[in-house]
Amino acid sequence: SKLNLDGGISAAHKIYNWLGYGTGNGRLATISTGANSVTQTVAGDDRDRFLRKNMRISIVSSDLGTVRGSQRITSESGNFATTFTLDAAINSTTNDLVIVQNTANQCPTGLRQIVDDTTDGSIVFQNISRNTHTRYRGQMLSAASAALSHSLLRRMLGGQIYPALHELKRGDYEIWSHPAQATAYQMLGWNKKYWEGKSKSMDLGFVTYEFEGLPWVEDIDAYKTDVMFLKWSGLMKFTTMDWEWEDTTGSIWRQVPSDTAGVAYSDNFEAYYQVICNYGCPNPQEQGRVHTLAIPTGH
């Protein structure tokens, strides 16, 4: 039905947005305590928030070399829980990764790989070693689990991005974060504004966040411990095939093979919605990220 198709498209775009913040390995969650069980335990700042009921997932080793198993999620995940359940047991190991089934290292190069200095992503980025060519690293500033502060934001600009670019050019930048860090910024206090109008019609104008003139954008899919300084003119998307239904046979629907003896196909149909593209950045040192920030209580 159209409702199912529209829902599938929406879900695909949502998953793609999650992955756009990652490193390209496809990680949605990390197993915190391995077990041979239908119930799997996850921890960390994300827990199960990128998992959804009926999603087909694989649990793979942390180096992505071994697939522990693939099953369907049966629990109502995505509620920041520490466990989720499957329709059959998988024998997982602590620190294994949960990914969408069969997507290990097949996901887009996300912002945690583009804006990185080998802290979260791989050493090689776009076939260039960031250890050999250190100016190919993004500007990284560790908060060491401290709360967000004006000092950290100022250090990212005045201590890292501006010196690296040898210029004070801020017009192309936006600050992006999860609402958790926008909350932390709000808790620092509003910036002062002068008002010269009539007192009975006062409008303080606090509608959006900004820092030193840089717009602050909230995205619920961003990592909770990161605040990113993004120069969008330096981020690129390369598309071989845009989003489309796979219809080589003339129809998007494919009948599902049957597992019943003597019956070739079941009375079920499936379709595939696909895209072939990737993200890149010719000059990563323009991009910045404050990471390992404390998460405000309640987020």
Written overview of the protein:
With about 300 residues, the protein is α+β, with helices and mostly antiparallel strands. The chain is built from four helices and 18 strands. The strands form five sheets. A six-stranded antiparallel sheet has the order 4-3-6-1-2-5, with no helix packed on it. The protein has a six-stranded mixed sheet with strand order 9-18-13-10-12-11. A hairpin with a 2-residue loop joins strand 1 and strand 2. The chain starts with a helix and ends in an 8-residue tail after the last strand. The mean pLDDT is about 90.
Produce the secondary structure layout.
Blueprint: H1 2-19, E1 27-33, E2 36-42, E3 56-60, E4 67-72, E5 83-91, E6 97-100, H2 111-114, E7 124-125, E8 128-129, E9 139-142, H3 150-165, E10 173-177, H4 179-186, E11 210-211, E12 214-218, E13 227-231, E14 236-245, E15 254-257, E16 265-270, E17 273-280, E18 288-291
Parallel strand pairs: 9-18, 10-12
Antiparallel strand pairs: 1-2, 1-6, 2-5, 3-4, 3-6, 7-8, 10-13, 11-12, 13-18, 14-17, 15-16
Say how many strands there are: 18
Q: Taking Cα atoms only, what radius of gyration do you get, to the nearest Å?
A: 22 Å
- Averaging pLDDT over every residue, what do you get? 90
Q: In percent terms, what proportion of residues is strand? A: 25-35%
First CA to last CA: what distance? 37 Å
Count of DSSP-assigned helices = 4
- Assembly context of the chains: single chain
List the strand order in the largest sheet.
4-3-6-1-2-5
Instruction: Please mark out the parts with pLDDT under 50 across 5 or more consecutive residues, or reply none.
Output: none
Q: How would a textbook summarize the main sheet?
A: 6 strands, antiparallel
Along the chain, the helix and strand elements come as: HEEEEEEHEEEHEHEEEEEEEE
- Approximate shape: globular
Classify the secondary structure makeup into a structural class. Answer: alpha+beta
Q: Approximately how much helix is present in the residues?
A: 10-25%
